[in-house]
User: Fold this.
Amino acid sequence: MNYLSELLKLPVLDVNGEKLGVVNDLGIATGEVFPHVTSLAFQGPGKTPFMISWRKYVDHVDETGVHLKTRDTDVRFSYLQPDELLLARDILNKQIVDTQGLKVVRVNDLKLSSSGENQLRLLGAEVGGRGLLRAIHPALERIVARIARAVGKPLEEHIIAWSYMDLLERSTQTIKLSVSHKTLDELHPADIADIIEQLDPRLRSQVFAQLDTAQAAEAISEFDDDELVAEVIEGMSDRDASSMLALMDPDDAADLIEELDYEKAEKLLRLMGVKEERAIRNLLGYEEHTAGRIMTSEFVALPATDTAADAIEAIRALDEDFESIYYVYTLDTTGALTGVLSLRTLIVADLDARLSDIAYRDVVWVTPDLDQEDVADEMTKYNLVAVPVCDDARHVLGIVTVDDALDVIAEEHEEDLQIAGMATGEGGSGESLHILSWFARRFYWVLVWAVASGVIAGVLAGLGAAPELALFPLCAMPVVLIAASRAVSFARNFYLDYEESDDDRGPYLGYFLQSAGVGIVLGAVVYLCGQLVLGAVYPEEALAAVDGALAGAVLRAHALSASFTCAAIVVFASCATSVAYLKLLFWRDARDRNTSGTALGLAGVLIACLVFSAASVLAIYLLFV
Assistant:
């Protein structure tokens, strides 16, 4: 009896063997590393619920049931204490946070261990498939385990120790689970965000309610899903949401505000302090995906005539929640940017040294309308952890920090992977880690080929042509589909590698000449291969016309030749027209729209399939009639 599922429904027997009911739950006392079972809940006659003390009344447990020490008339019932919870009611089949693996999991079973003569302790939660099978029926678990062991893939247990579990349900969230484990609100904000994104929608607001305003602000800024951000904010009161946004970095708050409808956004902004509202509204005035949108207004800029001591004192006077300080910028009498100092330079300098004397004057800065990807490139090029954003008069409007630059790089990388037809979860080899996903992304053309071949055969049969004539376009079609897929890949790779320049009128003509040249070569190869096959299968003497009619082997030979000729033409057309896909990629990029490389490849394959199918069926039909 090592699992809760094995104990449930066992009979409860008194010292004389009389049945009092069946087990339906166990109570534990929280606050221990491995909490012990304190209460036995069972269902008596007429489905009446009872609860008794485990230590006082339970003698032992075995396969036949839970055996008590006393007669049924001597049993006295008890109640659950404030620091106790029920395993089946509060934990089994519930979502919990694995605070070690930093993920949300579902409890399929609970593992127990005997400790002493009649004591049980909770070891942890079974969150794997084995616990799910056992919950359905222990015999099913044993059968599947034996099969898995026979094929060399043992069905392992997946146990999360009690000391690494955190409950999410409202009814149990205030209970202290363990004396040793890290609770949800002690995790890093990025880890909290990952966990909340994994939760069922009904639990997200409950978990968010456990965080104070500062923790909520840090966690929500780490969310990747914009719709989830809007959902969480909509579920909060206006005052709480406004307070949370006011504590966030202005650039992060501006991104979140933009996801809300206008009325909600205006209400939250008006509830903020004047300083926070002005900072966020200034950022919202810039176009999306520019330096102005991702910059923060929290930076340190001082007159160049100040001393190092003045700069250090200014940094000390900043609020605790101020954006991380990487540099101190110096300004002239008009407020224009004149230099920059790293914190190291400031610390090692003499306290009475003038900032103008120790500042680096060749400052790298960007304009607010510069594309965010170009900003990240500038920071990478000059190894900067922050770059100032200035207007034409070099007045500092804000700074872009390294965390925002990394977000931009990650976002652009994800878009490039999507265009390349890969998922973000794929390995460095570029192939999906899951066999089904890998097959769907790389060999979808096989399914297209199979369906199209059946359609071609059906159409030819409907036209009255010989059934075997469908074999010829079926044989030629794979090269058409593969060539179309590769043509789209060529366009994607050209787009990803292309570097725009100011005086360039566009890459389309050069690309067309390249792709059309490749199409001519591939089309010629396909046509010549068809002729070689034709010559090998149907020698010249076998193609003599009988009474001037194209019949038998002659008809099949012409059908074979027509199929490969159509294939050669479609291959050339796929390569030559792939410039349209390149144009589409640039057009969507200019409008900040994501493009799926897999969807683009599928579109190219389907178009080539339709054109080839129509052309080959028409050619064979004309031969037949």
Observations:
- The radius of gyration is 36 Å.
- Confidence is low (pLDDT under 50) at residues 170-182, 423-434, 545-550.
- Residues 508-537 form the longest helix (30 residues).
